[in-house]
From TrEMBL:
Cellular component terms per the entry's GO annotation: cilium; cytoplasmic microtubule
Organism: Chloropsis hardwickii
InterPro entries: ARM-like, ARM-type_fold, CLASP_N_dom
Gene: Togaram2_2
Protein name: TGRM2 protein
MF GO annotations: microtubule binding
Amino acid sequence: PQQSLLEALSLLSSDDWELKEKGLFNIKHLAGSHSEVLLCRLCDICLAVTSEVTNVRSKVSYSAIITLGELFATLKKDMDSEVDEVARVLLQMVSNSPEFVQKAASQTLGIMVENVTPARAMTALMDMGVKSRHIQVWKCAAELLLSLVEKIGVTKLAGTPRAERLAHMAGKLAQDCHRDTRHYGQKMVKMLLNHQKFKMLLEQSLSTPDL
């Protein structure tokens, strides 16, 4: 396995896209069969795979995204340290790629949210997703944030330093011009309103009189 990993990394550094694809396939295979081997070089592996996400060949890009999904699914919280960079690149792909690549990026972000430490994923989504003004990115970030709010629970979130920012963001999403994003935002606001602290924060952040 150690040897396979070195081979996979050297294939990834090749200029030939077919070899890159082979390298990605090998890493995906290793994640399924010998995940412990990946842990000692996790940073290098994630860097190599993530840099292929933006490959101009959509086939390679797609393979890299699927491979990242496999890494999140098998390594779970061990991937916490990679969340910020991976989320940034995947959200970028949600906005300007062929449809099948966009779909894969959304799916892998979903796998990420399911498997890493929820607070890490939430911070990354609030940092990256919101900086973008792209409709698809906002929609994707809103959907994932809603699932994280459900997962972590409103009471627990109220006691974190992220509470104010989350309330502000939920309020913003709930008023978005895009219907789906608005739907996720409104669901989030409804959940947050069940908690006194969030109710207060939302009232501060939303100037709407009907809250």
